[in-house]
Amino acid sequence: MTSISFVTVDVFTSERFAGNQLAVITDARGLSDRQMQEIAAEFGYSETTFVLPPENAENTARVRIFTPTGEVPFAGHPNVGTGFVLGLQEEIFGKSAGGHLRLEEKAGLVEVALRRKGGIVSGARILAPQPLAVGPAIDPESVAACASLDPDALSDRNHAPVRISVGLAFTVAEIGDIEMLSKARPNVSAFHEANARYPLAEDSFSLFLYARTRDNPWHIRARMFAPLDNVIEDPATGSASAALGAYLVSRLTEADAEIELAIEQGVEMRRPSLITVAVSKRNGALGEVSVSGDCVMAMRGSIDI
């Protein structure tokens, strides 16, 4: 029997026991795909990451991301949290971490810039690995059924429900106000029906709902449900937040824009999270899309294999 080390970190928060939990296996060499999946299921967090030596020596590491039910090509909070954990190490597979990391993932290369407070690593900023992809449109009745809401709760003032991605696909829909958003509850049967109606090769149907605050349209409250991945509700979803930010900016009439969004999530779960998304637009074309946030170490330990 051998043991492997792990740490857990709370992501998109500066307060311990808030934000989104993440387990990081800092050296996953020797683990099989089956073992990685079993470990992710044992933790039961929305994602667990497994760090391996890079295939290209110019990069920092290769990272695999597992939900409790399967591997995903990219996710936001796992990259922010893994970058934070690696940034605290003196060495990563024999090399110094420095201020920037390059993580190889199934969705592509993820650039990570470490954030510091008082000289100490406090979080990370990541760039989305893929350009914005939009479609197909999703019928409002399916979205409403998945969220146990009346279709009238949905708003089409900015866009109709649609699937979008910058590395991992989500269905996004705007809710009329924050009070109605707080009433949403996942209906697993409806999710199965939506999954059959709108199949996705690399993942199952998941739903990212949001409402814009009245005083500031770029301050957003969000919730994410993925019960088919055994994630009833996610406290913070960086990949969906990045895709939403990119999509909303892409729909602006202005040809040039520099927009920063503050996205609150996890409030209804009593795990409040704050995600910062920055999107640039030049001559009508989207540029960089980044996600950033703070992190806090929570636990350290070992797993017997």
UniProtKB/TrEMBL annotation:
Q: Which InterPro entries match?
A: Phenazine_PhzF-like (IPR003719)
Instruction: Read off the SUPFAM superfamilies from this record.
Output: Diaminopimelate epimerase-like (SSF54506)
Q: Which Pfam families match?
A: PhzC-PhzF
Molecular function terms, GO-annotated: isomerase activity
Which is one Gene Ontology cellular component term of this protein?
A: cytoplasm
Catalytic site residues? 47
Q: Out of the domains of life, which is the source?
A: Bacteria
Q: Which Gene3D superfamilies match?
A: Diaminopimelate Epimerase, Chain A, domain 1
Record's PANTHER family? Answer: ANTISENSE-ENHANCING SEQUENCE 1, PHENAZINE BIOSYNTHESIS PROTEIN
Q: Which NCBIfam families match?
A: PhzF_family
| Recorded family membership | Belongs to the PhzF family.
User: Would you tell me the protein name for this molecule?
Assistant: Phenazine biosynthesis protein PhzF like
